[in-house]
Specification:
This protein is of the alpha/beta class and about 350 residues long. The chain has two domains: about 10-135, Response regulator (Rossmann fold, 3-Layer(aba) Sandwich), CATH 3.40.50; about 160-350, Orthogonal Bundle (Hypothetical protein af1432). It is about 60% helix and about 5% strand. The protein has helices spanning about 15-25, 40-45, 65-75, 90-100, 110-160, 170-185, 195-205, 220, 230-235, 240-250, 255-270, 290-305, 315-325, 330-350, and strands at about 10, 30-35, 55, 80-85, 105. β3 (about 55), α3 (about 65-75) and β4 (about 80-85) form a beta-alpha-beta unit. α7 crosses α11 (about 255-270) and α10 runs antiparallel to α11.
Length: about 350
């Protein structure tokens, strides 16, 4: 990291000869200088103009260098200030640093040393500004990401709320998926695939699994009895509808991992390990890991919840059903993770009844 090519340096000294020398030395490096014989005029300039560094004498009439430095720091100015003074006692230097100076050079000074010291502090300032900019960008990205997640969650809730029995289904499956992924990271053959980014994406993308149901007719979505084969064929299309709509978004933002995983989950969370699921009849490891995790989380919460066509089942019964489907409907490693975490699932379910 290097400093700006043409930094603006303010030089303050009550000796015109010293100012002349400093201007000459600094200008030889291509640095711009604004020179002042007193602190009052310099203060007015610095408060109104961008300044990259200040060279400041201490012993001056009126406002001393110490006082000017303290004033600028109290006003929030972070411009590096280097004291350049004939005072060379230790207490003078200590007071300079206490006032807010970043360096202290005694007169008479060596030109090359002065230039080297200024280079260091200009580079440090440039690095600090870059780091601050990066942090600001990261904060802005985080805020945008939060807003996007909140908006998409709200849309998913609108789809979910068409079915009055689903309650806190989205919130539940988010947490189930997160816990399963964290456990699998440490206790399965999928540890290399499950990064912190994967877990975060999975947590947020889980809300999108049934977003295609917004296109389902009420007569099918809210039917209290068993669906006919024709009705079930329509219901199964929610996977393709949800994924295809998100694909439109993904085509415009192909680097958005959250939307990409949302497509996987929406399209494939009804696939089965043995290949008997829908919409594509995928089997085993051909089913994306995110969808395999979502499949179990979705089934657990659905079976433990009241639906228009049946009452909620007891946790123990659902746990036994899922265990029997290991290697058939569900990935055996994900079932093992569920069984290890089943008390956590029950706790989450009970909290959100």
């Amino acid at each position: 990291m290097v400093a700006a090519k043409n930094p603006n340096i303010v030089v303050i000294d009550d000796d015109p000869n010293v100012l002349g020398v400093l201007d000459s030395v600094l200008n030889s490096r291509g640095w711009q200088t604004n020179s002042f014989l007193d602190s009052t005029a310099a203060m007015a300039f610095v408060e109104k103009n961008p300044t990259d560094l200040i060279l400041l004498d201490i012993s001056m009439p009126g406002i001393s260098g110490y006082q000017l430095c303290e004033h600028l720091k109290s006003r929030g100015f972070n411009t590096p200030i280097i004291f350049l003074s004939g005072l060379d006692e230790a207490e003078d230097k200590i007071r300079g640093f206490q006032a807010g100076g970043v360096d202290y050079i005694t007169k008479p000074f060596h030109h090359l040393e002065l230039l080297a010291r200024i280079d260091v502090h200009l580079n440090l300032r440039s690095m600090s500004e870059t780091i601050q900019l990066q942090k600001m960008v990261e904060r802005n990205i985080l805020e945008i990401s939060k807003a996007q997640h909140a908006t998409i969650f709200a849309l998913a809730k609108l789809a979910e709320n068409r079915d009055e029995d689903t309650g806190t289904h989205l919130e539940n499956v988010q947490e189930y998926c997160r816990q399963l992924a964290v456990y699998l990271k440490e206790n399965s053959s999928y540890s290399d695939q499950i990064t912190p980014e994967f877990i975060d994406c999975l947590y947020h993308a889980a809300t999108l699994h049934d977003i295609g149901k917004v296109a389902m007719p009420d007569a099918i979505l809210l039917k209290p009895g068993k669906l006919t084969p024709e009705e079930f064929a329509i219901m199964k299309s929610h996977t393709v509808i949800g994924a295809s709509n998100m694909q439109t978004v993904y085509n415009s933002y192909p680097d958005n991992a959250f939307v990409g995983m949302g497509i996987e989950i929406a399209l494939y969370h009804h696939e089965r390990w043995d290949g008997s699921g829908y919409p594509d009849g995928l089997s085993g490891l051909n089913i994306p890991l995110s969808a395999r995790i979502m499949a179990l989380a979705d089934v657990y919460d659905a079976l433990c919840s009241d639906r228009c066509y049946r009452k909620a089942m007891e946790h123990e019964h659902v746990m036994e059903m899922i265990a029997r489907e290991s290697g058939r409907q569900f990935d055996a490693e994900i079932v093992a993770a569920f069984l290890a975490l089943q008390s956590n699932f029950q706790h989450i379910r009970n909290l959100n009844k």
